[in-house]
Structures are given as C-alpha cells and as structure tokens.
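Late entry, written up from scratch paper. The run itself happened at the end of the previous shift, but nothing got recorded in the book at the time, so transcribing now.
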Amino acid sequence: MNRSQLCTVITAVALTATAAAAQVAQVDQAVPGYQRGTAVSGNLDAVGSDTMNNLMTYWGEAFARLYPTVRIQVEGKGPRPLPRR
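Output as recorded:
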C-alpha cells in the first residue's frame, strides 16, 4: 500500500468513526451539511507526541488537498514525562 492509499484509508476510517458517533449522538437534522469554504488559508501547526507524527502528516495531506492555501506543519516533541508527586 503506498502513502496515498494509506492516507485514503485513514481518512475513510476517520469519516466512518465520525458517522458512527453522529448516529449515536442523534444529530439534529436541521443542521446543514458541511460545505467546503473557499477562503480558508493560514497555518495549521500540529505539535504533540512523536508517536502521532505519521497520522497527523496523513491527515494534513488530506486536508491540504481540500485547502491548498493552508500551510501545515507537524512537529513531534516526544512523550511528556509523568509529573513527580
């Protein structure tokens, strides 16, 4: 499976999970469906555990296909140490 196919699979899984959650949550049918905006631009920075880097990168690539004027940067900081007691 190449990177593009994997990104498609991850996006499909995320959408399926979202749809399943929406069914459980009883979404108000009066709320209009999502319409892609035309004026979305700027920076989207994802900073967190480096274990999420690949997943965030794939999500960022899928988002960038919809909104090419958004600059996406993913940065892993490693795991956070547990607080001392």
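The helical segments are 3-25, 53-66.
(Scratch paper discarded after transcription.)
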